[in-house]
Amino acid sequence: MMSTGPMRTALPATSFRVGGEILPGTKSRVNPLESELILRVLRGQHEAFRELVRPCERAVFMATQAILRNEADAEDAAQEAILKAFTNLAKFRGDSKFSTWLVLIATNEALMKLRKERRQKLHDSLDDGRKDEKGNYVPRDFADWRAIPSEALQTEELRQALSRALASLTPKHREVLVLRDVQNFTIEETAKVGIGKSAVKTRLLRARLQMRDALAPGMDGSWSTGRREYKQVRPW
Amino acid sequence: MVMEISCEEVWREVSNYLDDEITPELRARMLEHFKGCKHCTAVLEGTRNVVQLVGDAKAFLLPAGFSDRLYQKLDRKLSEDGRL
Fold first, then answer.
1. A residues 72..91 contacting B (CB < 8 A)
2. Residues paired with A82 in a beta bridge
3. What is the pLDDT of residue A32?
4. Do domains A13-116 and A150-225 have the same CATH topology?
5. For helices A71-87 and B66-80, what crossing angle results, to 10°?
6. What rounded mean pLDDT belongs to chain A?
7. Where are the domains of chain A?
8. Which pLDDT band, with edges at 50, 70 and 90, does A4 fall under?
9. Would you tell me which of A41, A60, A124, B82 could form a disulfide with A106, CB atoms 3.0–4.6 Å apart?
10. Alpha-helical runs (H) found in chain A
11. Sorting pLDDT into bands at 50, 70 and 90, what band is B65?
């Protein structure tokens, strides 16, 4: 079922143009292989769609998982987003990478699903008491730590901690962090979800600082050493 | 000689600092601040580490069978639409 919401459309309007042709003077951001695959799909060679989507599968799932926080719902939303991309491929006008367009569709799909199922919960508890008088987020942990190496991501424990930290963010903060830091969108691309660049930066700051605070206990070395016990390296 | 900056101002800009979305003048003031403030340096380095970790492909894995189920669903849709 394709769902619609009152506040968003399922498809990022900024990336569309009837006929899918690039506007004169607009530089296409689609690489030649993607262009070829898109043309093949539009000509009826539907099997080419798999080839087009396969490199984006993880990014699409991440976009929906980060917002919905439930693997089954996220997979459902990811599938719906990919089906919508297929149905609307002729409208893709190539002013962004295909993966960017697809991830934005997935993000919108997940947000609409979240609203529809009335599962949007405010996670303001983390914010409370951590704002200064002007409402700015104040870091709560100032301990220095050893940087967590990427190898530590092989441990289920750290991956779960990252997921929990992500889940602690409000949907609007999570959305921005996922697009910018997980999907590696630019600030401008992230703003295509329908907010201004300034709002992207403000939300990103809050999201990153909260993520850091949420992961801070393990940053004392336990993620790196693999030891279960909490290693106290703080000077107090 | 660069103008001093408070810890609160540094926290407000730490994300923009990582994204290189600040002026050279503000960058210089923040750099000077980091030299003498361990707390703000910890905030900066921890935030940088978080950004690097969540962007790593190993951080979030696809569920087993995701691709198979996706393309089965796509094939079903194509069949329903009479395109196969």
1. 75, 78-79, 82-83, 86
2. none
3. 79
4. no
5. 40
6. 75
7. 13-116, 150-225
8. very low
9. A60
10. 32-42, 48-53, 57-68, 71-87, 98-116, 156-167, 171-177, 187-190, 197-215, 222-225
11. very high
pLDDT digits 0-9 by tens, B17-50: 999 999 999 999 999 999 999 889 988 988 999 9
C-alpha separations of A218 from A83, A177, A203, B35 in Å: 40, 20, 24, 25
Distance CA A140, CA A130 (A): 7
Better-scored residue on pLDDT, A2 or A55:
A55
| Confidence tier at A47 by pLDDT (50, 70, 90) | confident
**Contact: A142, B39; criterion CB under 8 Å:** yes
Q: Which two tokens stand for residue B73?
A: 């669903």
For the domain made up of A13-116, the CATH class stated in words is: mainly alpha
Q: Is residue B1 part of a domain?
A: no
Q: What is the ipTM of this complex?
A: 0.85
Q: Which amino acid is at A220?
A: D
Residue A217 pLDDT class (50, 70, 90 cuts): low
Q: Which residues between 124 and 143 in chain A have a beta carbon less than 8 angstroms from any beta carbon of chain B?
A: 132, 136-139, 141-143
How many structural domains does chain B have? 1
A212 — contact with chain B (CB < 8 Å)? yes
Class of domain A150-225: mainly alpha
Q: Would the CB atoms of A181 and B21 count as touching at under 8 Å?
A: no
